């Protein structure tokens, strides 16, 4: 098979299993984000793929060739880390050419490749500039260009955009994705930002405590999270304990008609945009409005239904007619609910 394959990879640091029995297949040309909270093992996994850390057990291969015994510098992967690690005493062109220079490539080839890469990252003609004179976004692009200099089989990035402000970060997400599609290069990005992962990847891998919780396309993961952890980590989720009541589910404050549960007690997840705020008579769940937050493009309403906090998101056009302190009705369509059986959420 062509692409990256991890087979039962574990990394222990003393008693801590930073990565715990992870198997993963990344087909050639795919953009994958490793997503998870701090300390879940994302960086350790990336470092093992890069060859900067040896697995305690398990195998890594690329295009069917085992990698475990290949040192980092022989893997020829492109890497960009949060710190960027550009050489401050070298010019932009010298920074980008560096990987070619240490491989002994002729200077004419170095110069033409640097020119080509600077065009690719939309910074043509700045070979002679000092890297210390560049803006954050420009430095980012130079680091990306340098990582791509050797036309790597695999492009690995660890929180590459985290030092940028929100607007530049979004612009760079689009650029990075476009670049990856243009080159068709297999790319793995570590991030703890779920919006970033949603907007860039073909596949998201959500990790927690060293293990993979789910791997799926962003939209599939959003609509069908495998468990409550994923539901809560990827976007916002209402996580509600529910009890079976014939064809309906009983939830704090009322019921969800037509949601039949296989177990007497389950946990359900509902996205805030699927919770409709209506009048007390029209909803099937009664709740009290606790807080309304106007976000510009949407309105977020926090409600209390018999001790459970519900969050609803509406568009400004569909702004519900309610105020803080009002008792309202909530309507949740059964088909918008993802059910986690008891003990599995
Ligand atoms: N060199 C090391 N020695 C000992 N423990 C380590 C080492 N590197 C990582 N760990 C531990 O392994 C676990 C996973 O760390 P890792 O850096 O991979 O997580 P992460 O998901 O990338 O976190 P962050 O988003 O904060 O960078 C943590 O508990 C961390 O303390």
From TrEMBL:
Q: State the Gene Ontology BP annotations.
A: quaternary ammonium group transport
* PROSITE patterns (UniProt xref): ABC_TRANSPORTER_1 (PS00211), ABC_TRANSPORTER_2 (PS50893)
Q: Can you give the residue ranges of the ABC transporter domain?
A: 4-234
Q: Where does the record locate the signal sequence feature?
A: none
The record's InterPro entries line, in alphabetical order, gives: AAA+_ATPase, ABC_SmlMolc_Importer, ABC_transporter-like_ATP-bd, ABC_transporter-like_CS, Mo/tungstate-bd_C_term_dom, NA-bd_OB-fold, P-loop_NTPase, Transp-assoc_OB_typ2
A single GO CC term for this protein reads:
ATP-binding cassette (ABC) transporter complex
The protein's UniProt keywords, in alphabetical order, are:
ATP-binding, Nucleotide-binding, Transport
Read off the Pfam families from this record.
ABC_tran (PF00005), TOBE_2 (PF08402)
Family to which this protein belongs: Belongs to the ABC transporter superfamily.
Please state what the protein is called. Answer: ATP-binding cassette domain-containing protein
Q: Which organism is it from?
A: Stappia sediminis
